[in-house]
Amino acid sequence: MTALADILSTSLMPHNDSRRAQRGAGKALRLLWVISLLLGGIGVYQRFTRGHLPAGYGSYVPWGLWVALYFHGVGIAGGVFVFGAGGYVLNIPGFRGERGLRTVIVLSAATILPAFLGIWFDLGHMERAHFIFIKPSFASMMTFNAWMYGVFLGVAAIAFLVSYREKSPWLRPLLSLGVVLSILFPSQSGAFFGVVDAKPFWHSPLLPMMFLASAVTAGGALLLCVRWLLGSDDSATDDALRRLRLVTLGGLIVYFAMEFAEFSLALWNPNVHAPALELVLWGPYWWMFWVVHCAIGGVLAFILLAVPSRSAWVAGAFLVALTFVSARLNVLVPGQAVGELEGLQAAFQHPRLKYMYHPSLNEYLVGLFMLAAGMTVFYVGSRINQALTAWLSTRKRDAYDDSETQ
Fold first, then answer.
1. What is the pTM of this model?
2. What are the percentages of helix, strand and coil residues in the chain, rounded to 5?
3. pLDDT tens digits along 146-182
4. Which among 137, 201, 266, 371 has the fewest CB atoms less than 10 Å away?
5. How many Å is the Cα radius of gyration of the chain?
């Protein structure tokens, strides 16, 4: 008996450490939510009372941090759904349960809905946002994207409700459709830029695939963090973490290989001048590419994910999910920072007529509000899931008791 107790205590030590780490992370997230909500509320108040004046973008660079966060959030939603729902459809270990599936659906909603807030705050006339649905023009890539997001959210919501029906024949077809859509709309976001012929830096057939690769990588990384935070120390959670770790590692390799191919071809050709690419590599924001994107989100995250430690995996995945917004900024801003007409910037002088973009404090504060909104959606969705699960369990237990009585 003593030997058995020693074995049990030894085997439970890492689980207890994991639970302590989860509780610590939960407290940190609650504190982060409070801070983000309070500071973000200030930014939203400024946006509604002062319009676009507190923002750092202007006439030549009209898209900034909020649009980058929008594309990042949409991409993460697609990546999360691909692995969570796709794993359920394919019956992959670690993704087989309906409980985990519903967490995936809630997490997808919690990343894509705040992303819509970002693009809404960026609009000049926020009150006209609904026109894209009541007066659509499907010749526009933006309209196509918006309707695709709407269809995806509808499919995900129906799948969420159907998942409470035991062995429903509709669940896997709905999830399969959702997976197809979640693969399409991150790459469609890249196509949104790729069709702009006036911007040579964006006009690249590889850009949609890079958007898809970054979405899959960041989505898998965030799902790894959430599964660790919510999961128990069982075989299903362990299987999910191991697979998501491999997915994130593979995604990093694929994305940086694509990025190297894109950049090296532009730099190797002696007859092509690539001013936007030079801004990415050696411009005022060189640190965004070399330090945030490559060093932290690439090298450091890869090392943490490669070591045999669950805590290191979570830390590396968190860095990937956080820093991959730099990949969006490194596409978005340099493409606008190069003027189509030489000498245009010198012709008129005004703070809004500059090709250099610096996010303002207001933009960062609104970004914090988007984070708080996403955390709120995830919390509310998780509580609804818990309530419905408990209600169904009670109904099944009552039905069983009635049958036993009869």
1. 0.88
2. 75, 0, 25
3. 888 999 999 999 999 999 988 889 999 999 999 999 9
4. 137
5. 23
Question: Could you tell me what percent of the chain has a pLDDT over 70?
Answer: 87
Those residues whose C-beta lies under 8 Å from the C-beta of residue 207, and which sit 6 or more positions away, are 190, 191, 193, 194, 262, 331
